[in-house]
Amino acid sequence: MMRLPRFAYRAPETVHEAVTILAGEGPSARVLAGGTDLLPNMKRRQQTPATLVSLRRIPALHRTSHAQGVALGACTTLADLVQDRGIRDGHPALWQAAAQVATPHLRNTATLGGNLCLDTRCWYYDQNWEWRRAIDFCMKKDGSTCWVAPGSPRCLAVSSTDTAPALVALGAHVRLESADGTRVVPVAELFRNDGIEYLAKRADEILTEVLLEPADGWRSAYWKLRRRGSFDFPVLGVAAAARFASDGRTVEQARVVLGAVSSMPQTSVDAAELLVGHELTDARIERAAQAAGKVAKPMDNTDFTLHWRKRVAGEMVSWALRELRGDDVRAARVRYARHDPGAAIEG
């Protein structure tokens, strides 16, 4: 049995109290929300913080507002997101992403902020301490070599968050708070293309809120590829969003984002530019899908072969764009994702 290492536990009741603790404890402290990723990592000794600062008793982090856009507290559970009809109707990409994370049991505990800040993953990293010691550890923890590509100067662990590509496609922002003050940044600027330093958030900052603009003509979709129909992390995530003109057919703005193909979500500017000013014809969708597939550069550090994962990226983008067009894609969703997001609705 793997056991947690020793740590101090703090349970503040306000954001101010939480950021004050982080400022005092320094880099040895970590925030704890749902704990579905952090606690298993601690058992494997991937992370060994001296202090855990729990966010669960802070009411402000559990609040949701649908006035003038959407404001979601970082401790909103994924299960609560799945039950939110406003999210389902106005921002379906986020709803679909949340509905496909892990299992119902984990969604009841896992939080939106935690999924956004999810640790990067890799075959050589996500093992117990004894296994990693046997191969002389890796660059991400305790070693100096990236075993995915031994000549690489940086860690190539992959971003496996489902909600991040969806929120980048939706143009969302996050609120970050520290003892020094508050800043609001686009979700797209929250990440770095580095498997170790994958967040642009400082260690003393807490992600407190996710902010979404009103839907206002935008349609969105999120597609996930994994081996099983539940539990598994994505080996490919595709988020697409487009704002349509008053005719309901011509694209005025667009974003196409790929997840799980790099250490951060990858946005295809070329794909978006090919869509703007045009209707989503089959030919236009095919051109955009091919352009989006070019930003997919998966490495051999997760399930399925990297060559197949790259090849299928464009195909999944095409299905996401067909969904934006209004096609009935339910059968394709079940074939690719082995999962119907609608089944995640309970009650």
Shape: globular
Compressed to H and E, one letter per element, the order equals EHEHEEEHHHHHHHEEEEEEEHHHH
The CATH homologous superfamily corresponds to CO dehydrogenase flavoprotein, C-terminal domain
Helix segment tally: 13
Supply the number of structural domains: 1
Plain-language structure description:
The chain has helices at 15-25, 38-43, 78-82, 85-90, 92-99, 104-107, 112-116, 129-134, 163-169, 269-275, 282-293, 306-325, 330-337, and strands at residues 8-10, 29-32, 51-54, 64-65, 70-73, 173-178, 181-186, 206-212, 218-225, 236-244, 251-259, 266-267. It is of the alpha+beta class. The chain has a single domain, classed as CO dehydrogenase flavoprotein, C-terminal domain (Enolase-like, domain 1). It has a five-stranded antiparallel β-sheet with strand order 4-5-8-6-7. The longest helix has 20 residues, at 306-325.
Topology of helices and strands:
Elements: E1 8-10, H1 15-25, E2 29-32, H2 38-43, E3 51-54, E4 64-65, E5 70-73, H3 78-82, H4 85-90, H5 92-99, H6 104-107, H7 112-116, H8 129-134, H9 163-169, E6 173-178, E7 181-186, E8 206-212, E9 218-225, E10 236-244, E11 251-259, E12 266-267, H10 269-275, H11 282-293, H12 306-325, H13 330-337
Parallel strand pairs: 1-3, 2-3
Antiparallel strand pairs: 4-5, 5-8, 6-7, 6-8, 9-10, 10-11, 11-12
Helix pairs in contact: 5-9, 10-11, 11-12
